[in-house]
Design brief:
Blueprint: H1 15-27, E1 41-46, E2 51-56, H2 57-65, H3 71-83
Antiparallel strand pairs: 1-2
């Protein structure tokens, strides 16, 4: 994937939700091979108010793997894991 850029449009409430929705959308196309990881750059642009965020994919992955935090952050991570098909099983259920 070196030197290749993929673009999708998504509607999201947070930066990390946008990253997850974008990755999920790109993975559904059969012409995409491999999966970006580590230090690859992910850009998110807010269209109604022009804002662009740039973050290392590794930061997104660390945030996604983190446990605990505020109830909202925990809920956001759970929703984003679900988008990516990586829901962690809850053994207390």
């Amino acid at each position: 994937m070196e030197g290749v850029s993929h673009t999708v449009e998504v509607t999201a409430g947070t930066l990390y939700e946008a990253v997850a929705l974008g990755m999920a959308a790109i993975r559904t196309d059969e012409w995409v091979t491999g999966s970006a990881q580590g230090l690859n750059i992910v850009k998110a642009r807010v269209m109604n108010v022009p804002v662009e965020h740039e973050d290392e994919l590794m930061d997104f992955t660390k945030w996604l793997d983190r446990e605990g935090g505020s109830p909202r952050e925990t809920s956001d991570r759970k929703r984003i894991r679900s988008i990516l098909g990586m829901e962690k099983s809850d053994s207390s259920a």
